[in-house]
Amino acid sequence: MLELAILGFLYDTPLHGYELRKRITALTGHVKPVAESTLYPAIKRLEQAGLLARATQPGSVAAPRHVLTLSEEGRRELRHRLAEPARRDITDENRWFTVLAFLRHLENPAAQAVVLRRRLAFLEEPASFFYDGDRPLRAEEVDDPFRRGILTIARATSRAELAWLRATIDSLDGSREEGVRDG
To answer: How many CA atoms lie within 13 A of 83 on its CB side?
Structure first.
């Protein structure tokens, strides 16, 4: 997830490490704060893999800054990771939001729709946080008000996401059909 966020933010514009960390923290929020001890080794790995480059710029007040730029190979790698996200990138909400934040860089509407369909299929599977044997429990079947709250909130969130996914997939399919008619 961290590498995907680094590649995604650098796809838009070159950034220095501090600004990159701020943007990643804003995306992941309190759920997964980004420590320097995690960010800079990830940057180094991506740099060693040839996915990004570092240039030194003079600092206006302080020491020189290292500005990170995505290489063409880094752009290809980002598009590949977006087109073929791992299953956990589809099923884990925080990882999914990172994929979603940069999915626009996958410029083909059909490819974008494929990724959204994978998330849609995951959300349409019956699931719950709580079970009676193998049967998932619905909110109205749970006596504990706190667990009922979890299920109620999760159901509302899932319904909203399902509606958005279906509408967006329809829109992407429509733009693809228009391209076929126009071409």
So the answer is: 12
The answer to whether the beta carbons of residues 134 and 143 sit under 8 Å apart is no
DSSP letter at 140 equals G
Answer yes or no: are the C-beta atoms of 2 and 42 closer than 8 Å. yes
Task: Please state the pTM of the whole predicted model.
Answer: 0.84
Locate 94 and state its tokens. 């925080």
2-79 — its CATH code?
A: 1.10.10.10
Quote the pLDDT of residue 29: 73
H/E stretch holding 57 reads: strand 52-57
What SS3 class is residue 52?
strand
**Which among 55, 125, 61 is positioned nearest to 87, based on CA atoms?**
125
Distance (Å, rounded) from C-alpha 159 to C-alpha 163?
6
